[in-house]
Amino acid sequence: AGSGAGADMRTEISTAAAFVTRLLRAAGGVGEEQLRCFRECLQEAMREHYRHHWFPLVPSKGSGYRCIRINHKMDPLIGKAAGMIGLSHERLFQLLPSELTLWVDPFEVSYRIGEDGSICVLYESPQPGGKAAKQLESRTSCKEEWRIGRSSPSKSYNMMTVSS
């Protein structure tokens, strides 16, 4: 294998691609073989896209470039992988959350569904050099969020409140 960036972004990329694939699987209507192909195509597209934009010594550098975003426009990397299995952008918009941000950075992959959803961490590993990992928001709210994050709650929806 080649040296440099390609070798050590494998975990982050596979985590991100598996997450998007999981969202598609949860939406239903896409076959397992298509999903497998989608995941591989997405990983390949990400590897290519990030090749010269991966800086383990400065993980936040290039973060915007690596960010995968669906926001009334389909992210080109997701669009490209979906095209390989014959899914149109229209179909993707039906299957995936309409607002999704996925940050793929060295040592951390996180996402947010909705413009003001909480940021949830999918993968985190300590950085070599041992700086303590930054404090994360409570993760418990994230576990099921991607399932219900597809549509905003209707007005009659009661949010659970914690009374002291």
From TrEMBL:
Database matches in PANTHER family: ANTI-PROLIFERATIVE PROTEIN DOMAIN-CONTAINING PROTEIN, B-CELL TRANSLOCATION GENE
Where's the Anti-proliferative protein domain?
A: 96-115
Similarity section: Belongs to the BTG family.
Q: Where does this protein come from, organism-wise?
A: Pheucticus melanocephalus (Black-headed grosbeak)
A Gene Ontology annotation in the biological process aspect, one of them, is:
negative regulation of cell population proliferation
Q: Gene3D superfamilies, per this entry?
A: Anti-proliferative protein, N-terminal domain
The cross-references to PROSITE patterns, in alphabetical order and at most eight, read: BTG_2 (PS01203)
Matching entries from SUPFAM superfamilies are given as: BTG domain-like (SSF160696)
Entry protein name: BTG1 protein
Gene coding for it:
Btg1_1
- What are the GO cellular component annotations? cytoplasm; nucleus
